[in-house]
Design brief:
Distance between the termini: 27 Å
Number of domains: 2
């Protein structure tokens, strides 16, 4: 029997029970759809975060308090007060860090902002005017923070677009005063709509001088971050080492394993984000793959039922000259067609849902999200679908092929 005739016979056998065939492949469809959706969204999230990190610039180094988190037990160490003014002075000394170009202390936290009877709780960032250059965001109205604002602990604020909408609506906000922790702050700038920027959302932020934030808002004499700009990308690695040596000297640390700070470059951040997203995506794909296993077992059960129901058909075909190999091939072909069709439908639905999700995230959530179709994942998913059909279809097909034509014709 030719492959063409076997394929035609298999398709006719599946068409005889259309509803059952559709229900049989449902597990495969759900599994492949979930895998494509997870891979697409995972890649989109990775591209979004990596794009924002790259936008900060390869010459930027971040210094954070505490040990570098390697597990849940290290999270508490992030909330320490190890970075202080003496560290700023030491880092600015050219003898210690010769390739340092600019430095920006950062403090942040959440605090209520009020205007007349309206209140809102954004993230407060205490920085310098350098933040616009580092994050490549500039006020669409008004001005940036100036050195005088920092040295005088000025009560001035730059607000994000969402903060402006929540407190002022369509009214002009520039030049107005808002209250933060009982103090009046004059709005000197308004940021245009930025959307999510990696882990930051400047639409939902209020930017004030870090000196003002430390003294009047958060009441702390330490920094949550120190951001450093290097004069050249070629000097980043050397500057990292200079920073570590300088801070160890400042903190009287002889053993590097006891560092109460950690330094991250953009390259390290990129690698970390890629690793995290890949592990998370792999985990979610593994969970979604369980439905493929369930779908495969379902196909085997249905095929066994089909073999029993079609016993007389098998006997008749063998009496007319069909060999055991022909019967085996036919039933195996039916299983592969079922799983292959489920795989194709799952790939289509997964791609469609991923595309719709990207539209929702970009238009309604405000993320710079791009749709990514995981082509390699689609080929792998399709291959897995056929493999499942082959693996779970072998046993029912062998059971059909082993039937005696005489006994099969006598079957009622």
């Amino acid at each position: 029997m030719t492959i063409k005739h076997t394929l035609k016979t298999a398709v006719m056998g599946l068409k005889t029970h259309k509803s059952r065939s559709l229900l049989t492949i449902l597990g495969i469809v759900i599994g492949i759809t979930a895998i494509i959706l997870v891979l697409s969204l995972g890649r989109g999230a990775e591209n979004l975060i990596l794009g924002q990190i790259k936008g900060i610039g390869a010459k930027t180094i971040a210094i954070a308090p505490g040990r570098h988190p390697t597990g849940p037990t290290d999270i508490a160490s992030l909330f320490t007060d190890s970075l202080k003014n003496k560290d700023i002075d030491a880092l600015k000394n050219k003898n210690n860090v010769p390739h340092l170009l600019n430095l920006m202390p950062v403090v942040f936290g959440s605090q209520v902002i009020s205007y007349e009877n309206d209140t809102y709780r954004p993230t407060i960032f205490g920085v310098t005017g350098l933040f616009t250059e580092i994050y490549n965001i500039y006020p669409s109205e008004g001005r940036n923070l100036e050195d005088e604002d920092i040295t005088s602990n000025a009560n001035v604020v730059i607000i994000g677009s969402k903060v402006k909408d929540e407190l002022f609506g369509e009214s002009d906000a520039l030049g107005e005063e808002v209250k933060i922790k009982g103090r009046n702050f004059k709005i000197i700038g308004i940021l245009g709509k930025q959307g999510q920027s990696g882990f930051l959302n400047f639409d939902d932020a209020a930017i004030i001088p870090y000196t003002t934030a430390q003294q009047y808002i958060f009441g702390k004499k330490y920094f949550d971050r120190i951001v450093v700009q290097v004069d050249s990308e070629n000097n980043v690695d050397q500057t990292v080492e200079d920073i570590k040596i300088t801070l160890r000297n400042s903190h009287n640390i002889d053993d590097p394993s006891k560092d109460d700070f950690f330094v991250e470059t953009q390259a390290q951040a990129l690698n970390m984000v890629s690793t995290i997203t890949n592990i998370l995506t792999l985990f979610l794909v593994s969970v979604a793959a369980i439905s493929l296993l369930v779908g495969g077992i379902g196909i085997m059960n249905i095929m066994l039922v089909s073999v029993t129901e079609r016993t007389r058909e098998i006997g008749l075909r063998k009496a007319l000259g069909a060999t055991s190999k022909d019967i085996l091939t036919q039933f195996l072909m039916e299983a592969i067609i079922l799983t292959g069709t489920g795989g194709l439908v799952g790939i289509f639905l997964g791609g469609l849902l991923s595309f719709l999700a990207s539209i929702i995230l970009s238009r309604f959530v405000g993320l710079s999200w791009s749709f990514v179709f995981p082509l390699s994942g689609a080929f792998i998913g399709l291959g897995i679908s056929f493999a499942i059909g082959l693996f779970f279809g072998i046993y029912p097909a062998r059971e059909a092929a082993k039937k005696s034509p005489i006994e099969a014709l006598r079957y009622e």
